Amino acid sequence: MATSKSFNIAIIGGGISGLTLAIGLLQHNISITIYEAAPHFGEIGAGVAFGPNAVLAMKKISPTITAAFDKCKTVNQGPSKANSWFTIRVGDARKADADGFVKPGVKVGDAWYDVELDTDRGNGGVYRAHFLDELVKAIPDGVAQFGKKLKHLKIVDDGSRDVICTFEDGTHARHNAVIGCDGIKATTRRWLLGEDDPAAKAVFSGKYAYRGLIPSEEATEMLGEEVAQNSSFFFGYHGHLLTFPIEQGKTMNVVAFASCKEWKHDQWVIRTSKEDMNADFAEWGPHVQKIVHAMQKPDIWALFYHLPCDTYYKGRVCLLGDAAHASTPHQGAGAGACIEDSLFMSELLKEVEKKEDIERAFKAFDEVRRPRTQKIVKTSEEAGRLYEFELLGDDLDKIEQNQTKRQRWIWDYDVDEELARAKSIYHSSSAQA
Ligand SMILES: Cc1cc2nc3c(=O)[nH]c(=O)nc-3n(C[C@H](O)[C@H](O)[C@H](O)COP(=O)(O)OP(=O)(O)OC[C@H]3O[C@@H](n4cnc5c(N)ncnc54)[C@H](O)[C@@H]3O)c2cc1C
């Protein structure tokens, strides 16, 4: 067995980013401690979809992650939809002519076009809580500490450049380096960028979402098999709705998006009423109306995202996942970007022999990962407006042309080439030192 590395790392936060990173680092015998604010690991009861790039990154980090994904994943259930990412429909009745057609041959709610995956890398949706539970099984006892909400970081000025983490419970921990995986409201991000940096805190995207799960039997009865069992988008004016199957087709995951100018609440998740939820989609077609009426919990999730920042690292502290680049969910690429980050970070830290070189690994990570992940955030926000007839208006031909191509650069990411580039940046900067 390979000997352990001589340095240790604190991972702040145990979500998808923290856990996939932990699995990657443990494979390379790097000593880690995960500090999680909650009393245990946990995810919300909703679905998350992974694109081909994310599935490839999982495979390259560890077979454990692929096994967890394979155990939980669900793909489109209809054989004719095997290569479809999402089937696109117009869901808004206001876009129809008097006979209910959105363009010749396409009725409101009918399939308009499919965004094809065209790859054998794989994809799929999972129930978040189940996927996280599978990842947790790969974390040995003693690696994680719970109820540890990070309050502050300090770089030690005794020449060691170690980092002291101070937690809300008044305790401290000293590590050679810290990786912030503490999500969209990250304490690590605010510390690293400074409270006055406009990018330190997430900004409201003008969109909010209702999330729901509908048993497939009920969905099939309401919508027919094709819609209930395969991934669908419904586009419309200042709103859109998406569905995809999870739990081996037993459940249809729903996210219904609507718009408002500003978010006036302190909380990002608030309870509203069924009446308000139905009112948001009152002018939509029958498919969307049925789905919205079947959703039980009218909670609203405000969608925030990060403006681009100038760096992901300072000294031996680095941001990763949503802490670095929280995105709106419109391209289904946020969590995938987190897993790619975990691959790059673990592969770079594998190269590091002594703690003094960690900062150069963080520099290489920043150089390679920041442009891609910030582009995902930017294009995702645009995609939300595209689907809601705000980017290119309601010109369906332009929307189709734009949308069928816009995900390709995310899915076809040349991971090997980019990993080689990251390692070369790391090694050439070590050579210069
Ligand atoms: C409505 C919606 C739908 C989405 N759908 C998709 C999708 O289909 N596909 C996709 O790829 N992405 C999707 N995303 C994005 C995806 O959910 C995120 O990118 C991903 O979950 C982020 O994971 P993370 O581990 O970086 O952060 P988080 O999941 O936020 O985890 C952060 C962890 O850190 C802990 N923590 C926070 N603060 C501290 C602290 N101070 N000290 C210690 N611990 C702390 C938290 O308790 C938590 O466990 C969606 C997002 C939203 C909002």
TrEMBL record:
SUPFAM superfamilies (alphabetical): FAD-linked reductases, C-terminal domain, FAD/NAD(P)-binding domain
Q: Which organism is it from?
A: Didymosphaeria variabile
Pfam families, per the entry: FAD_binding_3, NAD_binding_8
Question: Which GO-annotated molecular functions does the record name?
Answer: FAD binding; oxidoreductase activity
Gene Ontology terms describing biological process: secondary metabolite biosynthetic process
Q: Which terms are listed as keywords in the entry? A: FAD, Flavoprotein, Membrane, Oxidoreductase, Transmembrane, Transmembrane helix
Taxonomic lineage? Eukaryota, Fungi, Dikarya, Ascomycota, Pezizomycotina
Report domain FAD-binding positions.
Answer: 167-379
> What name is this protein filed under?
FAD-binding domain-containing protein
Can you tell me where the transmembrane regions are?
7-26
